[in-house]
Amino acid sequence: MTRILITEDDPFVARIYQSKFQAEGFDVSMAGDGRAAIRQLTANPPDVVLLDLMLPEINGVEVLKFIRSKESLRDLPVLVLSSAVAGELIQAAKNAGASKLLSKAMCSPRHVVDEVRSAMAAHVPTPVGGDSEDNVRAAFEGRVPPLISRLSPLLEHLLKSAPASRGPAVLELRRAAHTLSSNAALAGLTNIVRMSSSLEMLLTEVQANPRRVTPSTMRTVRQVVDFIPSLLKDRAQNTSAASPLILVLDDDFISRAAVCAALEQANFRALSFEDPLLALRVMELNRFDLIFLDVDMPRMSGLDMCRKLRGMPINADTPVIFVTGYSDFETRAQSELAGATDFIAKPIIPIELAVKGLMHLLRQHGEIRLPSQAAA
Description:
Layout: E1 3-7, H1 11-23, E2 27-31, H2 34-43, E3 48-52, H3 60-69, E4 78-82, H4 87-96, E5 100-103, H5 109-120, H6 133-160, H7 167-187, H8 190-208, H9 215-227, E6 246-249, H10 253-265, E7 270-273, H11 276-285, E8 290-293, H12 302-310, E9 320-324, H13 329-337, E10 342-345, H14 350-365, H15 371-375
Parallel strand pairs: 1-2, 1-3, 3-4, 4-5, 6-7, 6-8, 8-9, 9-10
Helix pairs in contact: 2-3, 3-4, 6-7, 6-9, 7-8, 8-9, 8-14, 9-14, 10-14
């Protein structure tokens, strides 16, 4: 009998995966955090590992590095479950030797079982019994709304905490986002998985680098928490969705490259321009799904550019996000008057920009296709 170690810190989600794999003929061991996973790997190595990246104590990347550092475990198949926007963590898992990278947003328990079988390169008999996919989805759909409702009071507690002592409140909200992501994945609620996973990643950055946190960062956290409940109304899957077309305009090469790199963390690709007049000609002929503008540019300011965009039928309602070093109230007010959708202050936190972009794309279209998913 094939032995599998499953890492999952949400007990309810863990029971579902445990039941599914047991019904499929696996001998299942569970670990609720990275430290427990390493103990089990040392004491009683399995035949295959299903590894979540976002784990308490020790994250999944460190667990994977431990596995590949041990001669006895070096060839062990390790399938990683990842969020849609965890670009750096996904790359770290790939570099650490993951056998397969699976998207939480796109994988049902049935799909995960099939991927494990494929990784094992051996047939595992499928016995009769176990919960159907429809029953699993129905059970988790009922859990998602209460989990969403937990986010707002936890956010309020975080915002009332003094910056120097808000670590525990950040951790509590991050864990709530992680639990929501895991449950939404089993419910098949793709958009909620993407958004709650992105919130979890942003809060991880807030917790790890509190000195980098700005009022802009906390405003983004609030926007995401307020936005997630609206995703319950949209159950669309990405089978008919289009890959978004994004434009980035900034005359400074370093800033422009930073914005594009941040978008790549979320598997988005963007057309980037240094010259406002050239970008304007492109926007007159092409419909974009999202536009990032600098405010202070030669030949044409971002404010003037945004006003012109709002006069173009083809991009009149395209979300426009200003990325600027000017974070004063007057600049924010001017950007709103010019027709901007949102505002983010430099120096950017890459995951914050990726989260904000994802939120506005989902708000605009209801569903989008990521390049990596389109190719899968």
